[in-house]
Amino acid sequence: MTQLLPDVRETGPIDPHALVDDRPDDGCFRVNRQTLIDEEIFAAERDHIFDTCWLYVGHESELPANGDYLAREVAGRPLIFWRDTTGQVQVYLNTCRHRGALLCRVPSGNAKGLSCFYHAWTYASTGELSALPDEAGYGENFDRDRFSLLRPPKIGSYRGFVFCCFDPDAVDLPTYLGEACDYLDLVADQSPEMEVVDGMHEYSMDANWKLFVENSLDGYHLLPLHRTYFDYLKEAEGSFLDPRKQTRAEDLGGGHAVITVEGPWARPVARWTPAMGEENRAWIEEQRQLLEQKFDPDRARRIAETDRNLLIFPNLVINDIMGIVVRTITPTSAGRTRIAQWSLAGRGEPADVRARRLDSYITFQGPGGLATPDDMEACESCQLGFRSAKEVPWSDISRGIAKERTGEPFVASDEIQQRAFWRHWRDLMSR
Ligand code: FES
Ligand SMILES: [Fe+2]
User: What is the number of domains present in the chain?
Assistant: First the structure.
């Protein structure tokens, strides 16, 4: 008779070391499925992960003009991402200092100040309480300065990517990003100025957020799960993904990880294929030359030729493939996840290149594209399978684990990248 492993959550309080069974010498790495379904573990993640890590808020280019603002939600907190009247990018907690109402109740706008709809306390974009009805009614000791908008304890920006952190004792942003900075640079250096293309996609799935993080770094699933897309590429363009081509997977430390692939599709910066149109060939080749003038040949080649899926722990993914997708993966419960994504592009690229970039992005990674629905379906299918978590408690993430001993390089279809995530998850959850 098959021996069933005990449900580790039945043995007592949450023990992250028991939930992540990490024994490289035995060729074993597996994660207990309770981590993906248990609401108590999700509540602990809020404290140990989302309240301690640096989290992505938005890109500076999303606020082109002074006064531009966007409502964002990060770590369960409503935020206002606002370029103030002096041009400074601000991140405020979107809650009125009077009694708490949301100050900003629309997704975006432009204003020098915002007035709370409840009792009309009014705040300047620089955060000060600038006006309130019948101030005299509070008496002479009332001090407006005590009621300015508050910010998350830490705010930082790296190459235009703005983050905040709810742990006042956290390390600074560049230290937190560590080796991932190099990969963010490869994205940010594609053009003298990068910008988020107007508009965004938002969608959700009935699955745990960590499944989509894993999926975003998963080179193993590409050919089996996205068969339709690769068949389409072959048919439409005569190009196909060659699994023998060099791919790489890396643990960047701090839970960050990356896979790099040289795909068969066009990269608007700067790998031309017929899909980009003959009329755009010269422009794309010129971009390549500009990169070669600015950077050493190896770096120019990395920027232009390699596709990468980068995870900034815990929930920011940058898919720099046929377009650049900046994606946040935000849990609302153990079994429900909200995804927001934006397209990043070089400012000033010709309209036809921009149109083809967006078309290519939407075709593969749009919420109704040829990849994302496959990925959602796979994650939701796993979540459905977890209803048997008591009898089938473990998910295997051991692919390529022998290389951890031999030092051989990892390829994108290995799972070092997911192990990097889970090891950091375990360490933070144990603190
Ligand atoms: S809650 Fe905002 S003014 Fe009263
Ligand atoms: Fe996928």
Answer: 2
Q: Is the pLDDT of residue 71 over 90?
A: yes
State whether 378 and 239 are in the same domain. yes
* Residues whose beta carbon lies within 6 Å of some atom of ligand 1: 96, 98-101, 116, 118-121
99 with 190, same domain: the answer is no
Ligand 1 centroid to 150 CA: how many Å? 15
d(CA 259, CA 319): 10
Interval 265-288 mean pLDDT: 86
Same domain, 305 and 413: yes
Whole-angstrom CA distances from 12 to 6, 23, 60, 192 are: 12, 22, 45, 54
Provide φ and ψ at 25, rounded to 5°. -65, -25
Distance 379 CA to ligand 2 centre (A): 10
Q: Where in the sequence is the domain holding 146, given as residue range(s)? A: 54-169
Q: pTM to 2 decimals?
A: 0.94
Q: What is the mean pLDDT of residues 223-238?
A: 83
What is the distance in A from the centroid of ligand 1 to the CA of 147?
11
Ligand 1 atom nearest residue 100's Cα = 1
Q: In terms of domains, do 157 and 250 share one?
A: no
Two tokens, residue 205: 């799935």
Contact between 163 and 52 under an 8 Å Cβ cutoff? The reply is no
Q: Of 219, 200, 240, nearest to 309 (Cα)?
A: 219
What's the token pair of residue 182? 């190099």
- What would the two tokens of residue 403 be? 């290389």
The whole-angstrom separation of Cα 418 and Cα 425 is 10
Phi-psi bin for 76: left (phi > 0), alpha (psi -120 to 50), beta? left
